[in-house]
Amino acid sequence: MSDAFICGVEDLLDLEDRRALPKQDLRLLTVRAPTVGPPNSPAPVAEPQERAGTDLVRLAADESATWAQWAEASNVGDIALEQLMAETRSLASDYLTSDPFPLFVRTRALRDRVFALLEGHQYPRQSVDLYAVAGYLCGLLAWMSSDLGQLRNADTQGRTAWLCAELAGHNELRAWVLSTRSKVAFWDGRHREAINFARHGTTYTTKGSVSVLLACQEADAWSELGARDEALTALAHAQDARAAMTAEDEIGGIFACQPARQENYAAAVQLRVGRAADALRSADNALALLSVQPVRAYGTEAQIYISQAAAHLASGEAEGALDALAPVLALPPDHRLEPVTRRLSGLGVNVGHPYANSSATIGLRQAVEEFCVDSAPRHLALSPGEVSA
Description:
The chain is mostly helical. It is built from 18 helices and no strands. Helix 7 runs antiparallel to helix 8, helix 8 (171-187) runs antiparallel to helix 9 (191-201) and helix 12 (259-272) runs antiparallel to helix 13 (276-291). The protein is elongated and about 110 Å long.
């Protein structure tokens, strides 16, 4: 019975039991047996004087061999790690062209698989790789959450992604996470914070295009603050970062800054600092570059057209603006992400000076309002429950 409860016999007796015992039995209880250890605990090791020298040496070797068998075991192999990274690349690439809701579900499921593996046992180098994959996946979830208008949730994902980057000691991932957090801060109106995140990201030595994007994001935030010189200087830094690239991006997709994406940022910045003609040239260049890319990101393309339309409006060409926006207004509701609807809403507010009563302006304003009402963030906000695959 005492074995079943992992205790000594004397621990099963209360005071009345002890009083009823014969004296000779009670004396036996005063010689206590060795305390029973926790389940699966190793048996106490005999002291050297109690065991022959060769037996003790052999026992120590057996103990080390047993531990080595545990240490050698892993719940993930190198092929599995390679597959996890490949799936992460696919998700980051698919996000450029796919509906966000189903892709969010897929990304969350893969993140959960990686988290579960990290709760198990693997080699330290494999843990580092798993933390890197987890960091990219949380970064991707942060980007998606932001595009769906869920900025607070995006911030939470960004903080977890940063923790994973730190645990992995991965500079490329650190820079991409800071880029993601800069993006979230920008759309949340925290422009100084967006600048700080972007600048922090450039302090890490990287090989791909993340430094280009960080400089573009800094320029974007400065232009929103009305700091013309700082914005244009940051755009120049983006050009320098492009020239300094030494390798392709590790993940790609949303975690890459192709030349068309860089020109899109340039167009938006130039519009805000009052250089409409330069903005129109950048938008035209961006569309030309996008046309030769193997993957056309619908979100980037929509923002380029919005910059093009804004440049036409700044020149008093409402008809040209409406023509430029035709591909944007044709986007299906699930592709109408928060950055697109926000920029389009801003364009709608500025429509009409000095052409407020023209038929083109009235039609443009109405089209913008209808577009923003039927959008992905609004559908998510009105959803009765969690999105399913």
